[in-house]
């Protein structure tokens, strides 16, 4: 009986975690660090309004995330490269993805060649509202591990 109970608990825990694992979405700790699959917006979306109200600029360092507050600056790393982007839209709306990047940010990370990649996402703590001057302007950071 005890073995059955532990088996049921283990199965229940596995089923509870299955949706998060299927989405490729893991959040660790209070710093909201996330690991998951990212894709990028094509240039055909240029000028379309984002959730923040601004027009999508393929050359801007921006991203779409489902839950992070608009204006949040995040550090995104993949393929040994790191870039900071500002969340200005909602999405992605494709199952299994956690982030949509602008064309410029995708280029920095090499996603323009691969289409998608597993990325690490870390909020920097900075918030940069749309269409306002901001000290925390997103930027190319450097190769991962460089000072």
UniProtKB/TrEMBL annotation:
GO terms for biological process: cell wall organization; peptidoglycan metabolic process. SUPFAM superfamilies: Barwin-like endoglucanases. Residues 34-120 form the RlpA-like protein double-psi beta-barrel domain. InterPro entries: RlpA, RlpA-like_DPBB, RlpA-like_sf, RplA. It is an enzyme of class 4 (lyase). Its EC number is 4.2.2.-. Residues 1-22 form the signal peptide. Keywords: Cell wall biogenesis/degradation, Lipoprotein, Lyase, Signal. GO terms for molecular function: lytic endotransglycosylase activity. Lytic transglycosylase with a strong preference for naked glycan strands that lack stem peptides. Belongs to the RlpA family. PANTHER family: ENDOLYTIC PEPTIDOGLYCAN TRANSGLYCOSYLASE RLPA (PTHR34183), ENDOLYTIC PEPTIDOGLYCAN TRANSGLYCOSYLASE RLPA-RELATED (PTHR34183:SF8). NCBIfam families: rlpA (TIGR00413). This is Endolytic peptidoglycan transglycosylase RlpA. It comes from Nitrospirillum viridazoti CBAmc.
């Amino acid at each position: 009986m005890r073995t059955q109970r532990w088996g049921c608990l283990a199965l229940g825990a596995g089923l509870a975690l299955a949706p998060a694992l299927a989405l490729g979405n893991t959040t660790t700790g209070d710093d909201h660090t996330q690991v998951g699959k990212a894709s990028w917006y094509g240039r055909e979306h240029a000028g379309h309004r984002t959730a923040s109200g601004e027009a999508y600029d393929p050359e801007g360092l921006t991203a779409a995330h489902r839950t992070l507050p608009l204006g949040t600056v995040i550090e995104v790393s993949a393929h040994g490269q790191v870039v900071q982007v500002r969340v200005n839209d909602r999405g992605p709306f494709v199952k299994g993805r956690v982030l949509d990047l602008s064309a410029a940010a995708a280029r920095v990370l090499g996603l323009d060649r691969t289409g998608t990649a597993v990325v690490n996402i870390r909020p920097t703590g900075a918030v940069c509202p749309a269409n306002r001057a901001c000290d925390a302007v997103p930027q190319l950071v450097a190769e991962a591990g460089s000072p």
